[in-house]
Amino acid sequence: MSTTIARMTKAEFKEMTEDIIEQKLIELLGDPDEGLPNFCFGQ
Description:
Layout: H1 10-29
């Protein structure tokens, strides 16, 4: 993304921030779904 923060809308900035935080939490804590059975509902 080549948009500067100054040119972002509030929604774009919020989405970017949430994505960064989620990525960092997964890095630090691991994927919470890892190791759980993979259920396919409706089949």
